[in-house]
Amino acid sequence: MSAPSVAPLRDTYPTRLDHAAQPIARIEPTVWATEFSGPLDAGALETMDRRGYLLRPSTVGPDWIPPLTQELERIGSALGDDPRIIREPGGSVRSIFQPHVLSEVIEEVLGLDTVLPVARQLLGSDVYLHQARINVMPGFVGTGFYWHSDFETWHAEDGMPSMRAVSCSISLSDNFPYNGALMVMPGSHRTFYPCVGQTPADNHRNSLVKQELGVPDRATLTEAATRFGIDQAVGTAGTGLWFDSNLMHGSGSNITPFPRSNVFLVFNSVENQLGRPYAAASPRPEYLAAREVQPLGSGL
C-alpha cells in the first residue's frame, strides 16, 4: 500500500528552532510488544527498553559475510555517480543507499529469522523498510559520524511522527574499540534534544557526508554524556546492533589498517508512516526515506 500525502500531526518534538530549547521527555514506549510476540526474551526486551540498544551476535552466520562483502564491492564499483552512493571528500565510498534494491543477497537479509521477527516484536506491528544503506569505513581514511539522534532527522526532514522505528546494524567486519566502532549513550533514547538551525534546501547532499545541522550543541552533548555515559558497540562480523531511533550515537574516524563496514536497516511501524516534514520545505528522496509503505512478510 502507498502512504498518502498528509499534513503532519501536532508536532510533539519540535526541532530546527531559531532558539535553544529544553530537552523533551519521550512519550512513546521503546518496546511495543511482549516476550511472547517474538524471539527476544524478557531480559533482552528489558535491556532494550532501559538502554535503548541490544547486541545480537550471529545475526548473520559466517557463511553470509563473504557474499555480502562481495556485493558491497560490486555495487560500489558499478554505480558510478549514482546519487545513492555517498563519497568522502577524497572520493572513497562512505555509504550506499537502497542496497536491497541493488542486490538480491542483501534483500534476503531482510527476511531472516534473526532480523524481521525482531523488528516486528520491538515495534509491535507489521513493519516496512524506512531506509537501508551500507556504511563503509576503510582503514586509515574512514571518517566518523558526529553525535546525533536519527529520529531528529527523520522527524524534521522525512515527516516521521513518532518514535516507533528501530535500526539494525549488521557488521560485515570485526568492530574493535579502535576502528571506528559505534558509540552510544545508553538511556538517551528517553530524551529528545531539540536542535537549532533552519533546514536548508537539499540538506541531505551535505549532511550525509558531514552532519552539522540537526545535532545538539557541545554543552548539551556534554550534559548528556555525563548523565548517560558512553558505551561502544563492539563485536565480531555478523553481530547485529539493534538501537532505538532516538538513541544518541556517533563514531570516530578509523585511522587503523582495519576496515569497518555494516549493513544498516531501518524498520518503521506501518502505523507510523510519514507525513510532510516537520522542519523542512520538502521531503528527502525515496532512497533515503521510503514513502511507499510495503509491509515485509506476514503479520505478527
UniProtKB/TrEMBL annotation:
Xref: InterPro entries: EctD, Phytyl_CoA_dOase-like
- Assigned keywords, A-Z: Dioxygenase, Iron, Metal-binding, Oxidoreductase
Q: Which reaction does it catalyse?
A: L-ectoine + 2-oxoglutarate + O2 = 5-hydroxyectoine + succinate + CO2
Provide any one GO MF term from the record.
2-oxoglutarate-dependent dioxygenase activity
Keyword Transcription regulation attributed: no
**Keyword Iron in record:** yes
Enzyme Commission number(s): 1.14.11.55
Matches recorded under SUPFAM superfamilies: Clavaminate synthase-like (SSF51197)
Q: Name the cofactor(s) required for activity, per the record.
A: Fe(2+)
Share what the entry says about its subunit structure, partners included.
Homodimer.
Q: Give the family per the record.
A: Belongs to the PhyH family. EctD subfamily.
Described purpose of this protein according to its UniProt entry? Involved in the biosynthesis of 5-hydroxyectoine, called compatible solute, which helps organisms to survive extreme osmotic stress by acting as a highly soluble organic osmolyte. Catalyzes the 2-oxoglutarate-dependent selective hydroxylation of L-ectoine to yield (4S,5S)-5-hydroxyectoine.
Q: Which PANTHER family match?
A: ECTOINE DIOXYGENASE, PHYTANOYL-COA DIOXYGENASE DOMAIN CONTAINING 1
**UniProt name for this protein:** Ectoine hydroxylase
**Per the UniProt entry, what species is this protein from, by scientific name?**
Mycolicibacterium murale
